[in-house]
UniProtKB/TrEMBL annotation:
Full protein name: Microbial-type PARG catalytic domain-containing protein
Signal peptide per UniProt: none
PANTHER family linked: DUF2263 DOMAIN-CONTAINING PROTEIN (PTHR35596), MICROBIAL-TYPE PARG CATALYTIC DOMAIN-CONTAINING PROTEIN (PTHR35596:SF1)
Ranges annotated as biased composition (Low complexity): 43-56
Source organism superkingdom: Eukaryota
InterPro entries in the record: CHP02452 (IPR012664), Macro_dom-like (IPR043472), PARG_cat_microbial (IPR019261)
Domain Microbial-type PARG catalytic: start-end pairs: 32-156
Organism per entry: Botryobasidium botryosum (strain FD-172 SS1)
Length: 290
């Protein structure tokens, strides 16, 4: 399928979800509407509430994985690996648009957020108030804003699989945290650093938002990604070390999660996967979900 045909297909899927699938799902699953209403938008990084761990054993060492995978496919593999794992403890990162819910998913765009919206009810959870009387709009996002969404229903397979509807017994729910990376940060001539110290500091704060929201909601398994390293043009060689530092050196997060997965589609030579494998090389576990 060429790029034009793929975009038309994605736009068709979006329309079909909005006009047909979402209403049908909401009519059959009252809890889905309840979970949508429990979405929380944080206008900035939530405050640190103290403590170092959400786990019963604070000495637990977080297990790290870096895999070539779609984010929801990775979450599904975790669920299938252990059917007893509580779905309410699995949280997927949505690398969000700061301008509008779902980015360009309605028009057939193909970044990570759009792919997640095609596959699931995520759009309904993150669109926020649709009228002034319902509250302040969540968009555009503030610099360190983030949105917590629980019980997002995944009902289609991946873009690579054609976005086919999943059988009901194959559908699953997970939680999502949505944060937008910096769009097109200015880099030094050698591309080795952010040209502005403020961009480096803001990126670290955005990643803190991701981790703090997940910890605040007592998530045990995170499915993260190459944050901002696609359409937003953040170099993975700069992003991966920030995740590493916060997750392994910062006392707030070093024992906060049981497992952290980085699900990064390689696209046959993408430059995003290797820098994350390199950053976490000494800590990586063997993936036994495949």
């Amino acid at each position: 399928m060429d790029k034009l045909s793929r975009g038309a297909h994605y736009a068709f899927i979006a329309r079909h979800n909005l006009q047909t699938i979402f209403p049908a799902l909401l009519s059959r699953d009252p809890e889905l509407q309840n979970s949508i209403s429990r979405s929380i938008h944080y206008s900035s990084t939530p405050p640190h509430t103290g403590g170092t761990s959400t786990l019963s054993d604070p000495s637990h060492r977080t297990k790290f994985y870096v895999v070539d995978s779609d984010s929801f496919d990775c979450a599904e593999r975790i669920v299938l690996r252990d059917p007893n794992v509580p779905r309410e403890g699995i949280c997927v990162l949505n690398m969000a648009s700061h301008q509008r819910a779902g980015g360009g998913w309605i028009n057939g765009a193909s970044a990570q957020e759009e792919a997640l919206c095609r596959r699931s009810t995520l759009f309904l959870h993150i669109e926020g108030p649709k009228a002034p009387e319902q509250g302040h709009s969540w968009y555009p996002h503030g610099p360190t804003a983030g949105t917590w969404s629980e019980g997002v229903l995944v009902f289609r397979n991946s873009d690579a699989g054609g976005n086919k509807m999943l059988e009901e017994d194959k559908r699953f729910k997970c939680n999502v945290v949505s944060v937008a990376a910096i769009l097109g940060p200015v880099l030094t001539p050698d591309q080795a650093s952010f040209a502005k110290t403020s961009d480096a500091e803001l990126t670290r704060q955005k990643i803190t938002t991701i981790l703090r929201i997940a910890k605040l909601h007592r998530q045990k398994v995170l499915v993260l990604g190459a944050f901002g390293c696609g359409a937003f043009r953040n170099p993975p060689t700069l992003i991966a070390p920030i995740f590493y530092d916060l997750l392994t050196q910062d006392a707030e997060f070093t024992h906060a999660f049981e497992e952290v997965w980085f699900a990064i589609l390689d696209f046959g030579g993408s430059a995003n996967l290797v820098p994350f494998r390199n950053a976490f090389a000494t800590l990586l576990e063997r993936d036994t979900t495949t």
